[in-house]
Amino acid sequence: MSNTFNAIVFDNINDEKKGRLTQLSTTDLRDEKVHVDVAYSTVNFKDGLAVSQHSPVPIVQKPPLVCGIDLAGTVTESSDPNWQAGDRVLVNGYGLSERHHGGYAQKAQLNPDFLIRVPDAISLEQAMAIGTAGYTAMLCVLAIEDHGVKPEDGKVLVTGASGGVGTIAVSLLSSLGYEVTASSGRVAENADFLKGLGASELINRDELARDCKPIESETWSAVVDCVGGKTLSTAIAQTKYAGIVTMCGLTGGAEFTSSVIPFILRGVKLSGIDSVMAPLAIRQRAWNRLAEVLDLNKLAEIYTVEPLAKVPELADQILQGKVKGRVVIDVNA
Asked: Is the distance from CB of 4 to CB of 23 less than 8 angstroms?
């Protein structure tokens, strides 16, 4: 039986830094306690930055490295008592594709502390349809609920609603009874799609991605912002008294300009959402809640499945805003 397997590896070849499809041996992997046959990964905005290396700050810190910040698969061998052969596991973040080999490979050797048990109600394919994007969306929803915002408190805004985090955030919030306004740069072409996920109102990105006043009309009880930049500034200025803005993305820019006024006059809370190094208890809580409340029929409408070889092409597409919803990578296809 061959020990070689397919992988997307980031390396510097002929002064060209990018991720490429290649073959590795199990001896190329770093020795860790848990060995996994990977079934699926996915494509996130961060994966696009890593594979294409279009990021101003390098994502891959220790090349050569297998890319992919997510993976789902089955344990084949373990020297850690918490994990046994046959366990279904997933990993999000924890430095995969940065300092550790990631999910764009058919095999992985992993630190047992990185692993999450895949809930029984979710298949491995569905786990990666959710992926870091959906897990991040759930972290945003949990922050909104923990802040005390209820469906009867008014509209919730989701920015970047056509993307990976946005689509699942719309689906989750609508399933929980919130009135969701979805903002996207592709409202016209995605109107039916977003309404099908549960959005009750759609607004064009340009209505938010603008220079705003320090404080504007109170509109949103809560916000899931996947964009940053001017969009985030406007969302903060429009958030209701004692509302919350959860911030988890930067497709509209890493910088934004705001005022102290919404915070001291309206008591608005700005909550940064970290999906990469969140503690295990928070991760497991998020995944268990996803298994409880995510509509898997809606999830099926959000994602497509593509082969491993297509990852470099998809990396460019997601950075260009051409990817709708979620893309699952079948590493064995």
From this structure: yes
